[in-house]
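User: I'll paste a sequence; please echo it back and then give the predicted structure.

Assistant: Echoing your sequence first, then the prediction.
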Amino acid sequence: MVRRRTRLLALGLATALVALAVVLVAPGAPAGAAAPEDEEYDAPLEITIDELTPGVLPLTGPLIVRGQVTNVDLETWQRINLYPVFGAGPDCTGCPPAMTTEAELTAAVATDPEAQVGVRYTDDEAVRAQVETLGPGESMSYTIRIPQRVLRQVFANPTTGVYWFGVHALGENPDGRDLLADGRARTFLPYVAPDTDASVDTAVVVPLRGRVAHSATGELGRTTWWEDALSPQGTLGGPLAFGSAGGGAPVTWLLDPALPDAVSQLAAGNPTREITPVTPDGTPPEDEDPSPSGSKSEGDDAGEGGDAGAEVGAATLEPGSPLVRAAQAWLQRAQTVLTDDTVAALPYGDPDLAAAARALPSAYATARKHASPTLTAWGVESTPVVAAPNGYLDAGAIEKVDDAAAVLLGEQMFPAAAYPDGPPAGGAVGDRPVVVTSTATARGGPGPDPALAPVALRQRLLSEAVVRVLRAGDDRPDPLVVVIPTSVDAAGARAFWEGLDTDLIDLVDLPAVTDDITGGGSGASAPRIDPDDLAYPDGQAKAQLGTGVFGEAGALIRSARSLQSILGEGYTIGDTVVGEALAGTSYAMRGDADAAPRLGRSRSWVVEQLDKVSLDAPQGVTLSSSSGSFNVAVSNTLDHAVTVRIEVATDDGATIKAANPIVLAANSRSSVPISADMHGTGVHNVRLRLTDVTGTPIGAEDELPIRSGQVGVVIWAIIGTGAGILFVAIGIRLVRRFRAARGAAAT
C-alpha cells in the first residue's frame, strides 16, 4: 500500500521556498546534496542517536544504540518498529564502499538524508525496538542491542575504513503502512583491523570566547544575550558544560582571558566603572560603597530602548537576579575546570589580529601582556596561543606573533596547489610553531541528525582518526586537533567523551601536540611553512574590523594609561579600561557598526576624569632681572590624590623649569613655582602643559608671555649714568663756587 502523508499547504509552500533559496544561494552544490538538518527533509518521525557504544565496530561484544523517536507529524503513529541500518553486508547492493579519505567523509556529510547509504536489518526480530503508540509531539526512548553474531554476519570481511550506520523507523498511520522509512538517523561507524597498532594523538580544544562590550560608564551591554549565552545551552555555558563532562579526560580550553573577568563583573551586579583604590591583596577597601550613587540600575535609560549613544542592555543588576545567579554558577564551574585542565590563552580580549596587524601593530603585545585579575586570583596557569574563530590568519597577523605562542590554523588555509598531499599536521612560520586544526571534523556528522550532537561529532572525529591511520601507512599518523564549535550541543556530552576511550586514539592536550611538532623545542626546528602559500580569501579580508575601531582603541589605551599613571600603583582603573579597549577590538565585533563609537564614548569618560586635573597660569610675567620665578596654580577635583608634571615649551632664548613632580591631594589646589632664566632681551611665549609621570600630556595646558629681565639692566644703567652726570654737575658747581669765593676774598 502506498501511504500518503498528511501535508499542510503552508508547510509545503515554506519547504518549496527554502528549497528555492538553497538553489539560489548555493549554485555550486552537487545535485541531490543536502546539508544536515536540511529543511527539505520533513519525515513525520524524528530519530536521534544519543548513544552508540562502542564508537567503533566492535571485535567482541554487542553494538548498542540508544536514542529517542519523536512524532513531529499532526497524526498519531502506531506500531513503530526501529531497525538498525548498515552500510555493508551481502544485501547492501549499490551501497558505497567503506570511506577511506577525508574527501569522502566530507562528501558523505553533504548527502541527501534520504539517499541510500545502507540496508535495513530486519532478519532478527530481537534486533529492533518497538513503540506501540506515539501521538503528535510525543517522544519515546528506544534501545537496540546488536549482538556480535549479527555484526559478523553483516561485516563478514570488513576492511579498515568508515561505514555508514543508522536507524530507520517504520510505523503505521491512518493511511496504513508501507516499507518507506518514516524516520531516519545516520552516523559513521569506523572500523580498524585488529592487526593495526597505530593510534592517533588527538587534542580536543573547547573554546570559551564571546562578545564583551562595555558602555561608556563601564557596564556590560546586552544583558539578555549574556543570560542566554551563560545558560547550559548557550554559546558560553554549552562549551563549558561539554568540556566539563570529560571528567578526567585531557581537555584543552581555548580561553579569552577577558571572558572570566566579564562574567565576574556580571556576578558582582554589573557595576559601573569607578576609580577605586585597592588594598595590598587587590580588593577594594571595606569603606568603599560597592554601589556608587552614579551607577545606573535596571530600567534606566542605558537599557533596552534607552539613549542611542548607550550600549544596548547595559544596566546594573539586582543581587540574586537570574543573570547574576547564572554568572556565579558559570564562574564556579569554570574555576573548577580551568584550575585542573590545560588552558590555552588567547591574547586578552581576543583582538582581530589580521586587522590589528595593519591598524594597531602594538595590539598583540598589549593584549598578550594584559593579565586577567580573575585568572590570577584563581591561580590559573596557561599556554599562549593564537587562533581565529574561523581558522583564518593572514601573514601579517602571524608575523606579529613575536612570543612563543602556538599559532592554530584551519586546514582550509592549505590549498591543494601548494599542498597536493593535503594539509600538514603542523610546522612553523619562522620560529612560530603552527598547529593545523581539522575544521572539517568540527563541522560534525551527516544529517538528518543535528550535525553537532555529541555522538555525531564524536563519530566524525573517530572517522577522521581512521583516515589518518590509513594515510600514514607504516608511519606514525599525524596528530588530530579539533576545535569544538561554540554551538555544540552539550546535552549528552558524556557520551562523546566515553566513546573516545578506544585504542584508535590517544587523547592528549594541545601543548603535547605542539611539542610533538616542534620536537619539544622552538618552532625553528619544525617543518617550514611559507606564509605566501597560505590561502586567505578576499572575503576574510573584507570581514575584518575597520581601522577606525583600532584608532579609537589606541586612543582609549593611551588615555587609560595616563589616568593610571597620575593615580599611581594603588589603583587598577587604567588596567581595567585597557582591557575594555582590547575587548572592543575582538573578532566578535566584526559587523558591529557601533564598535568604534562605543570605544569613543568610553574614551570620553576617561578624558573627563583627566580634565579634573587643571592648570591655571598668570596672564603674563615680567622679570626684574635675567632670571626669576613665578607661580602657576594646579587643581585636582578628583576624589583621589594624583601625581603630575608640568612640561614647558619655549624658544631658545629662555630656560623654564617647573618644580616636578607635583603631588596633589584629593580635591586640592596648589601653587607651583616656575623658574625662568632669560638669555636675551624681548618677550618669550611659554606653553605650560600637564602630563603624567611618563611625560604624556593629559589635556590641561596654558600659555603666557614672559618679558626678559634684560630690560631692568638698561634702566639701571640709565639711572646710574644720570646719577653720575648729577654728581659731576654738583662737583663742577662746587668748584666754581669755591673759586668765586676765593676771588671775592682777594679783592
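Residues 1-37, 287-309 have pLDDT under 50 and may be disordered. The CA atoms of residues 648 and 688 lie 5 Å apart.
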